[in-house]
Amino acid sequence: MATLPLADDSGSLWYDEYGDGRPLVFVHGGWMNGRSWRPQIDHFADEFRVVTIDVRGHGNTGATDRTRYSIELFADDLERLLARLEADGTRRDGARDDGAPILCGLSLGSMVVQEFLSRHPDRAAGAILAGAVRSMPPVGLPAGMKPLVSPTPAVSTSLSMAGPRTTFRSLLYSIRATTGGPWLSVDPAVRSTAMDAVGEISSAEFRKVFDALFRYEPPSLTGVSTPTLVVHGEQEAQPVVRQGERIAAAVDDGRHLTLGDAGHLVNQDRPRAFNDIGEKFLGGLAAV
Length: 288
Fold this sequence. Notes:
Layout: E1 2-5, E2 12-18, E3 23-27, H1 38-44, E4 49-54, H2 71-87, E5 102-106, H3 108-119, E6 126-130, H4 152-162, H5 164-179, H6 188-199, H7 203-215, E7 228-233, H8 238-250, E8 254-259, H9 266-269, H10 271-283
Parallel strand pairs: 3-4, 3-5, 5-6, 6-7, 7-8
Antiparallel strand pairs: 1-2, 2-4
Helix pairs in contact: 1-10, 2-3, 4-5, 4-7, 5-6
């Protein structure tokens, strides 16, 4: 793994690199880590310079000195990483990496990528948003209502009394009650691995990540010219799917696909299908 000192001197961002070529940067979901992209690393590293990161509060990056996190802060970190990749853009064979980066984000990671796209509408060569969500909750609330209905105090109490695993499981149960199915993943092994990742996160970091998710107010993506593919599993919560459809409709070149027999962690539930549609999408991108 490599590390990148964060701009606010609060810690270091940990990331991994595999292969050579155009940078293909993966941003994981909330309370996961870069290892969640293993099926994509194995598939794409022969053609791309695959980069996975551990977002603040997660994985090897772990806790930082910031008392509050935000999606905007995570996007700042992504910008810093991309600057590092551009500055260090040499391949292992000594040649230069060629082309603008491609970004792929899942859930929380999809928010980070959307924030980046809103700031830089044409800087990325392409974007794949898996389990894409615009806001939490995934339904619109009247202006000023979010602070009044925030579940953060209840989450904080649960974390103090029961810890991250039980708190995360309670969140899953509440979502499953609205979907009627195994929302997170249809594969018990994938769910187990996800729970292991949650168990690596402290209660304090879990709380900061949850707060970042809930407080985020998504920007308009109108005018974003980056080709964007939005992918959901058929077991995804319908309000989230509707948000994904709006993302695809908002950008200039967007499309939305649903994969059967898959939940929120669609890249792990259907890795071969996800990789195939990702490869087709990436193959259609114009050279930049």
